[in-house]
Each structure stands twice: as C-alpha cells, then as structure tokens.
Amino acid sequence: MPRPKSVATLITETKTAMKVLSIYRPEFDQIITIYCQLLHQYDTLNRKYVNNGMEYEVYTKTGVKKAPIVTTLESLRKDIAAYAVYLGLTPSGLKTINKESGGPIKKVSKLEMVLMDIEEGGKRQKQ
Predict the structure, then answer these.
(1) Largest CB tally within 10 Å, which of 10, 58, 99, 123?
(2) Quick one: CA dihedral 8, 13, 15, 40, positive or negative?
(3) What confidence tens digit (pLDDT) does each residue in 30-49 have?
(4) pTM listed for this prediction
C-alpha cells in the first residue's frame, strides 16, 4: 500500500479542483488546510486499520465493543464530508455555491489554472 499523500499535496490537489470548478478563493485557504489535514488523518488511520486486520470489535471486561479506531474513522468521514460540502467539492455543495453566486460557474481552462498558480506564487513571494 503506497504512503498517504502529504497534507501539502492534498492542499494543492484541492485548490486545483476548486480552480477547475471556478470556486477557489484565497480566503478559503484556512478551511482547505483543515479539510486536507482531516483527509490525511483519515488516510493514515484507515491504513493502520487495514494493516491491523480490520478489527471492527474489541473485547473488554464488560463485553464486545466497537474498536476505537472504527469510531474515529466514522467521525473523520462525517467531518470530511461536511467540509467537502462547504468547499463546494460535492454535487450538492457545488449546486449551493452556484445558486448563491447567481448561476453556474464557467470552467477554468488549463492555461487559466497555470496563470492563477503563477499569480498566487508571486503573491506568496511578496509577503
């Protein structure tokens, strides 16, 4: 199983996806970072869960219970889904953003994406 993607890689991929949908704004960077950290945590824990034989239940003195890692994975999954909706990365989230912005947003060409990346890099260097 390959290593999980880094948070930085996930951030880049998320921003690219949002740029393709024409919904990216730098003001979303903090939320994007949190979303990508959750994705990274989920991927890391899920790999641990799979590598440990996918033990769903644990035996305790009081009986059988759901394994804590399963509960954590379920919670992360819900949080990730919520953030994806907020960022417009799901069909329903994108539909809401399109409604609020007054209609469907035009797709960004690859050239426009490259130019936005160059512009964003220039802004970061000036800071």
Answers:
(1) 10
(2) negative
(3) 999 999 999 999 999 999 99
(4) 0.75
Helix (H, G, I), strand (E, B) or coil at 60: strand
Question: Cβ neighbours of residue 45 under 8 Å, at least 6 residues apart?
Answer: 69, 72, 73, 76
| 74-90 burial: b if 16+ Cβ within 10 Å, else e | eebeebbeebbbebbbe
Residue 117 CA to residue 106 CA, distance in Å, equals 18
Environment class of 99 (CB within 10 Å of its CB; exposed 0-12, middle 13-18, buried 19+): exposed
Domain ranges of the chain: 7-126
- Measured between alpha carbons, how far is 7 from 44 in angstroms, rounded to an integer? 11
Residue 29 CA to residue 18 CA, distance in Å, equals: 11
